[in-house]
Automatic annotation (TrEMBL):
<dbReference type="GO" id="GO:0048240">
    <property type="term" value="P:sperm capacitation"/>
</dbReference>
<dbReference type="InterPro" id="IPR047844">
    <property type="entry name" value="ROP_DD"/>
</dbReference>
<keyword id="KW-0597">Phosphoprotein</keyword>
<dbReference type="GO" id="GO:0031514">
    <property type="term" value="C:motile cilium"/>
</dbReference>
<keyword id="KW-0966">Cell projection</keyword>
<comment type="function">
    <text>Important for male fertility. With ROPN1L, involved in fibrous sheath integrity and sperm motility, plays a role in PKA-dependent signaling processes required for spermatozoa capacitation.</text>
</comment>
<comment type="similarity">
    <text>Belongs to the ropporin family.</text>
</comment>
<keyword id="KW-0282">Flagellum</keyword>
<protein>
    <submittedName>
        <fullName>Rhophilin associated tail protein 1-like</fullName>
    </submittedName>
</protein>
<dbReference type="GO" id="GO:0005737">
    <property type="term" value="C:cytoplasm"/>
</dbReference>
<keyword id="KW-0969">Cilium</keyword>
<keyword id="KW-0832">Ubl conjugation</keyword>
């Protein structure tokens, strides 16, 4: 004998009071982030929400940083989102970055290109990967370092974008090493000049 079909009316359906606000925040986050695969991104969004982790959400809607970065898919906002999720760790497992990267709808071959370029191991220094990402979004070393400072600074937006000199120095050393065309003398001269200006 078939089960009797249950009829629902609006009075029988209980809607949690926090649901409308949660859906509103989710919708705004999706519009800002513009994920390529909304379903996969939504899964990672709600998993992060349930686990109290940083959400895979950009701070604002943005266009690619440059024509150079357009084919790459990565933007300063997405890089900043990755930094919010992984930057506090220092050393990061490559598998976790792969998951976070895919959650944002970025292509695996681009991530693999950065891994090869930076010669990253299965456990790697996040700051080095981060600044290499800045380099991928920039036309030259100076622009890459400016972008890194803008993302990492705690200064208000539009301010001087200051970061600790040791952090700047570590990122600059790494990019110079990856570039290979900058001599140790030039690198040292730049850092010495910057440190002198900082102390004045």
């Amino acid at each position: 004998m078939p089960l009797q079909e249950t009829l629902f009316c609006s009075q029988q359906i209980h809607i949690p009071p926090e649901l409308p606000d949660m859906l509103k925040k989710f919708t705004k986050a999706a519009i800002r982030t513009q994920p390529l695969n909304l379903l996969d991104w939504a899964t990672s969004y709600f998993q992060a929400l349930a686990n109290g982790q940083p959400l895979p959400v950009k701070d604002c809607f943005e266009m690619p940083a440059s024509a150079h970065a357009e084919h790459f898919g990565l933007t300063p906002g997405l890089l900043k989102t990755l930094h919010k999720q992984l930057g506090h760790k220092g050393l990061v497992d490559w598998a976790e970055l792969v998951t976070r990267w895919q959650d944002l709808g970025l292509l695996s071959e681009h991530l693999n290109s950065l891994k090869e370029l930076g010669d990253f191991e299965e456990k790697f220094n996040w700051l080095q990967f981060f600044v290499l990402g800045c380099s991928a979004l920039s036309e030259n070393l100076e622009q890459a370092m400016e972008l890194a400072c803008k993302v990492l600074t705690t200064d208000p937006e539009g301010g001087p974008a200051r970061i600790p000199f040791s952090t700047f120095s570590e990122m600059f050393h790494f990019l110079c090493r990856v570039d290979g065309d900058i001599s140790i003398q030039n690198m040292t001269r730049v850092l010495t000049t910057l440190e002198t200006e900082r102390c004045q």
